[in-house]
Specification:
Distance between the termini: 16 Å
Radius of gyration: 16 Å
Largest sheet: 5 strands, antiparallel
Order of helices and strands: EEEEEEEEEEEEEEEEE
Length: 207
């Protein structure tokens, strides 16, 4: 009998508990996938930077290039992208977690913050920010992999991103679709005033 790990997590946002809902159907295993991030300015309505991607999970641990908004200075929002490779087969008994790192002015490098492993039920990262925890300019993603522990089966996943500004209440988390539903980009995550967040938290949800 296979063991299915399920994780639903809540985030306090906009005055209430944000609860996720599992997909109506799940596949035997999720598709091979990569993860992308895109930054924007002008309250998430302009100044779009180039989206940067990790490698695909079946090819092992990888890191994206640095992503920024169009001028690589104090982005207002970020969106995360779950990019399934439906032509590239299913995930091959791979466990995974998602990480992020921020920097400011090309040198004020913050620590890498990871979600828990998918086999542990997923969850959210600590705050992804630069070394002084103030208005990073650029972000990059990590996709770390290892063999899936015996007896654990991952059926589906989706990602979320949440903007955090210490001077403002947290924003509302933005979710991708489930991998079985095609994945894709989330909406842009913004803090309460849609201006220069101090960092982001990434969430991994699995069933």
């Amino acid at each position: 009998m296979r063991k299915l790990w399920s994780r639903t997590f809540g985030l306090l946002a906009a005055g209430g508990l944000f609860v996720t809902v599992a997909p109506a159907t799940a596949v035997a295993a999720p598709p091979n996938f990569r993860v992308g991030i895109q930054l924007a300015d002008n309250g998430g309505r302009g100044g779009f930077g180039v989206e940067q991607f990790t490698g695909f999970a079946n090819f092992g641990t990888s890191v994206s290039q640095w992503a920024g908004d169009s001028n690589n200075f104090d982005p207002d929002g970020a969106r995360i992208d779950l990019d399934p490779a439906f032509g590239g087969g299913l995930l091959n008994q791979v466990d995974f977690r998602i990480g992020g790192q921020a920097r400011d002015r090309g040198r004020e490098l913050g620590a890498v913050a990871y979600t828990p492993w998918a086999s542990q039920g997923g969850g959210t990262t600590d705050l992804i920010t630069d070394s002084n925890s103030f208005d990073p300019d650029q972000y990059r993603l990590f996709l770390e992999t290892r063999p899936l522990p015996p007896g654990v089966q991952i059926s589906d996943l989706r990602l979320s991103i949440l903007a955090v500004d210490r001077g403002e209440p947290e924003g509302v988390p933005a979710f991708t679709r489930w991998a079985s539903q095609g994945g894709g980009q989330s909406d842009f995550a913004l803090d309460a005033n849609s201006f220069d967040p101090d960092g982001f938290r990434i969430g991994l949800e699995v069933v």
